[in-house]
Structures are given as structure tokens and as C-alpha cells.
Amino acid sequence: MSRSFWLPMPIHSLLLFIVWLLLNNTVAPGHIVLGAFLSLVIPILCAPLKTEQPHVRRPLLALKYILKVLGDIVVANIEVAILVLGPVRRLQPAFVAVPLDIKEELPITLLASTVSLTPGTVSSELSSDHKWLYIHALHVTDEQALIATIKSRYEAPLKEIFAC
């Protein structure tokens, strides 16, 4: 058997071992043996489930994206608080279908997660052909403006980050 069978994810194995010992707050021989066993067996069992993901091609842009999303979360929290504290009849909730230009699963997942993290919007479904992301928004006055914002503010940077 090859090395890759016995140690398919060496970094994960090391992290599992360390976390096991930290969670048990001991370096007793029994915990060392059990931690070593689990840190070898769990990655072997999980290795067939591993799928190849696109790599981050522009890490500095990824950091900028994270900071932008954090800022958007703060601003959206304030906007949603103002909307919710106002009269409910002013709200115009809607489902919006956003056409996707990205095709890989990881960037689509990050886009859907970003939309869901931003208060006032939540990703509700991805079409089976992965061409549309359906979003529910708490207040929509202009559907095309919302789509344009999501595509330019979130999807375009993800395309650059993953070069897809």
C-alpha cells in the first residue's frame, strides 16, 4: 500500500491529533494512542469523499473581498433594523433569480453564503443546472438593481479570486 493510502491528508491528521489532545486536556498514554488512531483512520475513511476544488488565485483580492463583505454586513444590519422598526406594510419582500456566470461549486457556495450572511437577503435555492441562484430579499424596490449589485459586488470578485 502506498503512502497516500495510509496518510492521505497529513495536515488534517496532525490537526486532528492536536485537537484531540487539547479537547481532552491530557497527554496520557491512552489518549495519545487513541488520538493517533483516530487521526489516521478518520482521514482514510474520508479520503474517498474529497473532491478537487478550484484554488485561490488572488489571495490579496480574497482578503479585500472578506473585508468588503464584513462592511456590507454592518451596513445591511443597520438598513434591516430601520426597515423592521418601520411600518411592516412598507416592506416589499420578493424572490429574485440571479443568473450565474460562475460554474464551479466552491465559488457558487461562497456566493450563496455571502448573500445569506448579508442581513435582508437569503439564498433559497440553486437551480439544478447551476445557472440560477434564487434569493429571497426582505425589501426589493428594483429587482434589476439587486441583481446588478450581487453580480458586481460579489460574483465578479469571486470570478477573479478563483480565475473562473
From TrEMBL:
<protein>
    <submittedName>
        <fullName>Multisubunit potassium/proton antiporter, PhaE subunit</fullName>
    </submittedName>
</protein>
<feature type="transmembrane region" description="Helical">
    <location>
        <begin position="5"/>
        <end position="23"/>
    </location>
</feature>
<dbReference type="InterPro" id="IPR002758">
    <property type="entry name" value="Cation_antiport_E"/>
</dbReference>
<feature type="transmembrane region" description="Helical">
    <location>
        <begin position="29"/>
        <end position="49"/>
    </location>
</feature>
<dbReference type="Pfam" id="PF01899">
    <property type="entry name" value="MNHE"/>
</dbReference>
<keyword id="KW-0812">Transmembrane</keyword>
<keyword id="KW-1133">Transmembrane helix</keyword>
<dbReference type="GO" id="GO:0008324">
    <property type="term" value="F:monoatomic cation transmembrane transporter activity"/>
</dbReference>
<keyword id="KW-0472">Membrane</keyword>
<keyword id="KW-1003">Cell membrane</keyword>
<dbReference type="GO" id="GO:0005886">
    <property type="term" value="C:plasma membrane"/>
</dbReference>
<comment type="similarity">
    <text>Belongs to the CPA3 antiporters (TC 2.A.63) subunit E family.</text>
</comment>
